[in-house]
Amino acid sequence: MKKERKPLSLTHLDIVTATIVHEMEHVGVFHYCKLTYLFEYFFIKNFGTRYTKEYFIKLPHGPVICDYKRQISKLYNYNILNVDIDELNRAKRLDDYNETVTISPTPESACYLIPERMAYSLLRQVLREFGSLTVKEL
């Protein structure tokens, strides 16, 4: 039985986040940022348009979603995912990407997956191909 979505103000990025966390069961913040970037890259390459409409900051260790802390905190407050909020909001330096802040799903996560079959399928391909790689390997 398909779960019904609750009316929340969610962006495409929020839906991609919920889907990545749901599919992977737990993922580090920087790993999540890189996987989201790869999904957006392959979406553009395959469909000629952006899915999340998100901007990524180019850092030495890889792309990072511009406002990932706010976005993840919002989903935590909506009970869509679990994360240590204090650790997430702790000030980080550029070389702190080795410190992992883990995001995990809640039972509510399954209600907020990517609804479009082609986009969902593409994200699953990205996760199969790159999900098991470390942050440094990506």
Describe the structure.
This protein is an alpha+beta fold. It has 5 helices and 5 strands, in the order αβαββαβαβα. It has helices at 12-24, 29-47, 68-77, 85-89, 117-130, and strands at 27-28, 56-59, 62-65, 81-83, 102-105. The protein is globular. The model has no long low-confidence stretch (mean pLDDT 86).
Evaluate the radius of gyration: 14 Å
Distance between the termini: 36 Å
Low-confidence parts: none
Average pLDDT across residues?
Answer: 86
Helix content: 40-55%
What is the secondary structure topology, with strand pairs?
Blueprint: H1 12-24, E1 27-28, H2 29-47, E2 56-59, E3 62-65, H3 68-77, E4 81-83, H4 85-89, E5 102-105, H5 117-130
Antiparallel strand pairs: 1-5, 2-3, 4-5
Properties at a glance:
two-stranded antiparallel ribbon, 5 strands, 138 residues, alpha+beta, single chain, 5 helices
Outline:
The chain is α+β, with helices and mostly antiparallel strands.
